[in-house]
Design goal:
Radius of gyration: 32 Å
Order of helices and strands: HHHHHEHEHHHHEHEHHEH
Helix content: 55-70%
Largest sheet: 5 strands, parallel
CATH superfamily of the largest domain: P-loop containing nucleotide triphosphate hydrolases
Number of strands: 5
Number of helices: 14
CATH architecture of the largest domain: 3-Layer(aba) Sandwich
Structural class: alpha/beta
Strand content: 5-15%
CATH topology of the largest domain: Rossmann fold
Bound molecules: 2'-deoxycytidine-5'-monophosphate
């Protein structure tokens, strides 16, 4: 161990002895330890880590502010002058407390910043190795969209309903007065698609879904939409995507793949109830016919037909309500992520 040189001495007149002096090295060792503790803490419990940083910052700034106020106050209203004594014990104690509190607050602030820095760096590495991409596929009206949104909310991940992309392409083709089967017009619409228009209410409903399943058969349309979907999936923490070919084509490496299904009759019953709830007049038989037509089109097409990936878990929701379906899907995600 080298000679003991204090930190203040080293700052005033740096020498080689400083490099081996515990007095000089101590603050650096403490800082490095706090960086390591921050990195470890964020991996253990992200919420507790955030709470610690927040509380630490509040405490440090609070003490800093109070000590600066006290120091300012003692400058203006010198206790010695008030007592009529020069260099009184009270005055010295008050100054010592205020200056120690200031020094302590600065040390605490630097420590918290070290802790936060460690956590931040660790989070960057975590997001690189732990991106969670969840692919949810299934036929029309299987409830996969609702499920995808709930799973995404649970894991705080972004969510993309890829059916909306095809619905929007069909809308744009029709707006141009084009034919849904015309590959060139549909492909141009797909290339020029403005993703900010996906919340357009006209994209909801059976007519838009039926039109979407027609343009979705065109290979160039699918190719034009692929990059957008893959880029969405490649967000730092991952994403949830629902559609027909997410697990098979768009994200074949997704960590979790779920294929949601239910009998056509049950899907038609649920969808019919939704229409009736919105005051729309459509018969159950019409809804069932629409669902069967779309199932046949989506699973019978040559390119990226709807189907479960070989490594997907099939979730049959025929006899499950929405809550039970969510619980079952969540258990599947947790089971898959525990293994990977
Ligand atoms: O999920 P949805 O009902 O909104 O989908 C509308 C149509 O879009 C569907 O019938 C087929 C097509 N689609 C597709 O081919 N591939 C996807 N990934 C998503 C939807």
């Amino acid at each position: 161990m080298g000679n003991f040189v204090t930190f203040a001495e080293c700052v005033n007149s740096p020498s080689s002895a400083c490099l081996t002096s515990p007095g000089f090295l101590f603050p650096f060792v403490m800082f490095a330890m706090l960086v390591a503790v921050g990195a470890f803490s964020v991996r253990q419990d992200r919420t507790r880590y955030r709470r610690l940083v927040k509380t630490g910052l509040w405490a440090a700034f609070g003490v800093l502010f109070a000590s600066l106020l006290a120091i300012g106050y003692f400058f203006v209203f010198d206790p010695d002058a008030a007592l009529g004594v020069d260099g009184s014990a009270l005055s010295q104690t008050l100054w010592l407390v205020a200056i120690s509190a200031f020094g302590g607050a600065v040390a605490l602030l630097i420590g918290i910043l070290g802790f936060a820095l460690g956590g931040r760096v660790s989070q960057i590495f975590m997001s690189q190795d732990a991106a969670l991409v969840i692919a949810i596929d299934g036929p029309a009206a299987s409830g996969k969209g609702t499920l995808a949104k709930r799973i995404a909310a649970h894991f705080d991940l972004p969510c993309l309903d890829t059916g909306l992309l095809y619905r929007a392409v069909a809308r744009d083709v029709m707006a141009l007065g084009g034919n849904l089967e015309d590959a060139k017009t549909a492909c141009d619409a797909a290339r020029l698609l403005d993703a900010t228009t996906l919340d357009d209410p006209s994209l909801r409903g059976p007519a838009a879904g039926d039109a979407a399943s027609i343009v979705a058969r065109i290979p160039a349309v699918r190719a034009a939409l692929l990059d957008y979907q893959r880029a969405f999936a490649q967000q730092p923490r991952g994403a949830v995507l629902d559609g027909r070919d997410i697990g098979t084509v768009v994200c074949p490496d997704a960590r979790v793949k779920i294929f949601v299904t239910a009998t056509a009759e049950e899907r038609a019953r649920r969808r019919h109830l939704e229409h009736v709830g919105r005051g729309e007049t459509i018969s159950y038989d019409e809804v069932l016919a629409d669902i069967r037509r779309r199932d046949a089109r989506d699973s019978g097409r040559d390119i990226a037909p709807m189907g479960a990936a070989a490594d997907a878990i099939v979730l049959d929701t025929t006899h499950l309500n929405a809550e039970q379906a969510f619980e079952a899907a969540l258990a599947m995600v947790l089971q898959r992520t525990a293994k990977s």
